[in-house]
Amino acid sequence: MNPAPTPFALPHFWADLKSPDFARIDAAATIAVLPVAAIEQHGPHLPLSVDTDLVNGVIAHCLPHLNNVPVLFLPTQSIGRSIEHIAFPGTLTLGAATLIQSWVDLGECVARTGIKKLVLLNAHGGNVSTLDIVGRELRARFGLTVLMVNTFSLPLPAEVKQLFGPDEERFGVHGGDVETSMMLALHPHKVDMGLAQNFHSSSQDRAQSYAILGNGSSAKLAWAAQDLHAAGAAGNAAAATAEKGLAVLQASGQALARLLHEVQQLAALG
Predict the structure, then answer these.
(1) What's the pLDDT tens digit per position in 138-185?
(2) I want to staple 38 with a disulfide (CB 3.0 to 4.6 A). Which of 80, 103, 114, 128 is the partner?
(3) d(Cα 83, Cα 100) in Å, to the nearest integer?
(4) pTM score, two decimals?
């Protein structure tokens, strides 16, 4: 019978461990989190780093609420699948096959340590379909219990949602009030509010004109960013404030911590 690992202060970031430390962690109890994001245009007022900055910001606001949950955050994967933004200079994107292989490879590395639970923490909508494939590959090939989590889908309390309203929640999907507010709270020097505007999305027009096609659930348009607005953004960025952004970050960080507490209690799949 193998002796129990010697307890030690587990850091929250994978890269902060030394290689011999992995022999000392309680792998069966540890949760690995792989943050994935993007480097892509977010309209004229925001930097390419938005999705990467936001996932890192949510993690930072999660840490104070983790208590004793053993979580290891792997290095954030900054470049994702951003083909819908390639009409705009500066956008970086990888092919779906490349991403699937690289994220599966990272999951295999996690599995080799004996860790059984992996959370794929995503901050970019364009990564969702790729992550679905990755999650099932990792489950089937390496026996990992994998959860796909989007930062933009974490539950927010009503008082935070009310800061933006239902139209912004539904249509402000890229560089709008929410993301601009979060960036103002995290990195205000990166935001040019002089170029922020109400980027009216074509999705709003479809919602008014088509009962089924525009209802947001029955049909999914394979859009490119310029299809929503010529500036490559969607939502009322002009209404953004740092105070609203901080409220979202705090609520999202708390929600992520609660989720990780639940993942800790979840029995690993056999």
Answers:
(1) 999 999 999 999 999 999 999 999 999 999 999 999 999 999 999 999
(2) 80
(3) 15
(4) 0.94
Tokens for 258? 């609660």
Type of residue numbered 111 = A
Q: Which residue has the tokens 């309209």?
A: 43
Closest CA to 173 of 148, 149, 199, 194: 199
Distances (CA, A) of 64 to 61, 93, 134, 184, 270: 7, 33, 29, 21, 31
Phi and psi dihedrals of 31, rounded to 5?
A: -110, 125
> How many residues does this entry show for the chain?
270
Strand partners, 146: 118
The residues, any chain, with a CB within 8 Å of residue 34's CB and separated by 6 or more, are: 74, 77, 103, 106, 107, 110, 118, 119, 120, 121
Q: Look up residue 205 and give its two tokens.
A: 């027009």
